[in-house]
Amino acid sequence: MTTQETGQTLGKGLKPRHLTMMGLGSAIGAGLFLGTGVGIRAAGPAILLAYIVAGAIVVLVMQMLGEMAAARPSSGSFATYARHAFGHWAGFTLGWLYWFMLVMVLGAEMTGAAAIMGTWFGVDPWIPALVAVVFFAVVNFAKVGGFGEFEYWFAFIKVAVIIGFLIIGVLLIFGLLPGHTFVGTENFLGDHGFMPNGVAGVAAGLLAVAFAFGGIEIVTIAAAESEQPGRSIATAVRAVIWRIALFYLGSVLVMTFLLPFSSIDDAETAAESPFTAVLELADIPGVVGFMEAVIVLALLSAFNAQIFATSRLVHTLSLKGDAPKVFRRTSSAHVPTNAVVLSMVFAFVSVGLQWWNPTGLLDFLLNAVGGCLIVIWVMIVLSYLKLHPQLEANGEISTVRMWGWPWLAWVTLIALAGLVVLMLFDEGARSQIYSVAVVVAALVGLSFATRGNSDRVTSRA
Length: 461
Fold this sequence. Notes:
72% of the residues lie in helices and 0% in strands. The chain is mainly alpha-helical. It has a single domain, classed as Up-down Bundle (Amino acid/polyamine transporter I), CATH 1.20.1740.10. The relative contact order is 0.20.
């Protein structure tokens, strides 16, 4: 993204492989290694159906976002397209909503990583948290190509671990490791059957896994800093979609074949993770310590990508008059350093909230985070429905095109509405809808207070 004013230009150092790994790194977090058991416990092996449904929704949303991003690359991504489609209020609301979501999530990521690292070194968790935040500040102050290379190898390690897990799992299933025999369908279709808790269990499982793929939207934010944004987005979106599906579905398939579903549940520690349980079947020594290291790596990688995404969003919002002017400036390395500092400050605030845990406030904020992705995905679909005819008429559609106009977009919208209905009928998820509704209403109200700034910026453009 560029502007006519000097000192406000972002870099162009990211390559398609950087974008692909960034998308994978954002979606493959601690939730995969620790949280997978929640869905399996609810639905049994039929959780695969929930992952397929959730994956299909995300594939369609990403294809729509990819079409718009390839046609009009912007570090504001879906916030920019919402602005194009519905005006200032939509761009302001979506940009700050995603920023809020990532800030709260990165606080949780750092809290989890620091707790584990603190036990390793026998120190208070705030010490490794401080070291990690300073380290990632340095990474994010560097040229974007250096950041991309760092995140590439960070995410590559996680991907390698999952591929190794899948290979070991398949060998265990078919009894190809010494001392093991063919497992068959004893656990997958055993005494309780494929769908032990019926359709209600699958519905509960769908709520548990619906947002598992969240985070790959960062690909379209980062693509604006690649040399060929349209081509890079096309490559990254295709690669991320099928690899995420393979890793999640493959991992869950291995777990449900090798472990009785009744023995799998939510995991608070690496020792309780279903990944650890599978690797222990293969008699791999030191597996708990290994999984702890992988989980810390996953958390830190996601934290790093989220610092990048939040800083770029604030930079873009500033250019539109929706954030203070100070965040427009970029360094000689074309990095929005003031926006990075803001993300770091709020990372500390978020981490502090996790440890302070004020009564009611943290629960409200984290509940709001749970509903943010639904709002963002719905707005992506609505923006696509509004903008696609314009892109078609202007000949802007390039390397990425959504399928089945317009009915497939409407099917996606109906599926998202179905998720909202499920959340409203689920006592645990209902509060997410209420909390995010309050946050969205507050942001829409604030958008009208900043409308004048946005209009002045637009008139000067």
